[in-house]
UniProtKB/TrEMBL annotation:
Record text on subunit structure and interactions: Monomer.
Sequence similarity: Belongs to the LolA family.
Organism ancestry: Bacteria, Pseudomonadati, Pseudomonadota, Betaproteobacteria, Neisseriales
HAMAP family documented for this protein: LolA
Protein name per its UniProtKB record: Outer-membrane lipoprotein carrier protein
NCBIfam families (UniProt xref): lolA (TIGR00547), PRK00031.1-3 (NF000661)
Record keyword Signal present: yes
């Protein structure tokens, strides 16, 4: 029996968002997907971006923006690295202080999300079951994040940050528990790059 089918059979027929989140966290060690991202500002202006991402739980992720500009965000379990090829600049932060800087950090975190977030079931919308995660640490960089699930897989995320911006991310081409090269999550700053520590 295929793992996904087995997982679906272990979930209630109409599992809510929180049950699907728990199913994802308990049954997913690795996850890859393409993503489309839309950032909406208070003024109504929008910015579009797209790329590919991978996570290896717990704590490792590789978030690659491809269009309209290249940027790579890597979590190696201890540090968060943000590489901007156009500027040839790398920003380094402690991963535990930078959860608000990357939505992948939330998906790649530990199973015990309730230690850091207040979790609320938000019901159905757009064919997905939604939950809302409100960080208990108000310095996290965002006010709240909503995640939409289908078949115990994250299909969409909405982040509202402390600057009044809303970021919507939709996932596609999802692969669950693929075999990933561990070196993918070891970031080495390119030769000559300006490295800025933001701890």
């Amino acid at each position: 029996m295929r793992p996904l089918l087995l997982l679906l059979l272990t979930l209630p027929a109409f599992a809510g968002g929180l049950e699907q989140l728990k199913g994802f966290l308990s049954q997913t060690q690795a996850f890859t997907a393409s993503f489309q991202q839309t950032v909406s500002q208070k003024s109504g202006k929008q910015q579009q971006a797209s790329g590919i991402m991978a996570i290896q739980r717990p704590g490792r992720f590789d978030w690659n923006y491809v269009k309209p500009y290249e940027q790579r965000v890597v979590g190696d379990g201890k540090q968060l690295w943000i590489y901007d090829p156009d500027l040839n600049q790398v920003t380094r932060k402690r991963l535990d202080q930078a959860l608000g800087d990357s939505p992948a950090a939330l998906l790649a975190g530990s199973n015990d999300l309730e230690k850091s977030y207040k979790l609320t079931d938000m019901g159905s919308r757009d064919g997905l079951e939604w939950i809302e995660a409100t960080p208990k640490n108000r310095d996290s960089g965002f006010e709240k994040v909503r995640m939409g699930f289908k078949d115990a897989q994250p299909m969409a995320m909405e982040l509202a940050d402390s600057f009044g911006q809303t970021t919507l991310i939709r996932f596609s081409n999802i692969s669950r528990n693929p075999k990933l090269d561990a070196n993918r999550f070891n970031f080495v700053p390119p030769k000559g790059a300006d490295v800025v520590a933001a701890d």
